Amino acid sequence: MALAEDLEKELETTAQEVLGKLRSRQLFQSRWDTAAFIIFLIFLGTVLLLLLLVCIHCCCYSCCSRRTSRSQKEHRRGVDNLALEP
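^ that's the sequence the OP posted. Answer follows.
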């Protein structure tokens, strides 16, 4: 029971601190806070960009593969190893 009460008090204290920062309109207290937030936004933007590129690639690949089939463009590469023939 004591553990649950301590956790509840800690969460209430944290919530009051966050609400206090929101009321004062000063979310970032130092330059490190601002830099960490910018790095997080850059990371999030990069992930979203990569997801967008994957979606575009999948859509364009399915459209392009309908027009030209891979079996029509099959080219032989290399040389035949005649030593393996019986």
